[in-house]
Amino acid sequence: MRKFLIPLLLASVAASPALAAPRDRNNDDDTRTERQQSREDRQQTREDRQQSREDRQQIREDRQQVHVERAPTQPRADRSIGSRDIEASRAARREAVETQRAARVQVREDRVQARLDQRVLRQAERRDARVPVVSNTPRPGTQPPAPTTVRHSAPVHWNTDWRSNSRYNWYNWRLRHRSLFSLGAYYDPFGWGYQPYSIGWRMWPNYYRSSYWLNDPWQYRLPYSPPGTRWIRYYDDAILVDMWSGQVVDVIYDFFW
């Protein structure tokens, strides 16, 4: 029995290396193949990274080229102006624009005032051609006779140059405060209807009694009346009256609405 087992064991031991050798060779071939594939993959990865870096570098160069092409051609000194200088320049431009705008507004206001003065002058010239009749009894189209009493106040000295003073620009003031110049219906004490008065004419006392006074002329941007005079309302006109003689010292036609 031993004779048979010993040769059998020896035969199996001799066959084991022969069987293992092909499997080892196969394993070595697979390992080499995997290593080769891994090296190729790494090489491809490196090439991809290099290509990506080159692409990014090219993009940056293209952007720099575009920026250079779009950059203004002004000198470098102009581009280096400080923020304070820029703000000062802007403020100067704004001030210049505001000055020009104010000048244009003033020119328009002067033109409007000049046209208004010319219209008032033409109206006064037309009305001066009609001299009212002096009468001792009130009747339409007449004026009372000059007073015979002694004057206890100084004569009135009045200058109509106040119309050219922008402080008394009642026309523009009226445009912004229309309700102030809307005083409602006018009550004529004699019922004669509107009879326009000119400077130098005398009014009947009933027309300048206290119920017709403009107690605050500045409210309408009118100059304050000198002593012995009063601003009154006569229909839509504003009239400055000498309270002693009833004489019209100044008049603004179509003053109220």
From TrEMBL:
Comp. bias regions, Low complexity: 12-21
Keyword set, alphabetical order: Signal
Gene3D superfamilies: inner membrane protein cigr (3.10.450.160)
Biased composition (Basic and acidic residues): 22-98
InterPro entries listed in its UniProt record: RcnB
UniProt region (Disordered), positions on chain: 12-98, 127-152
N-terminal signal peptide: 1-20
Protein name as annotated: RcnB family protein
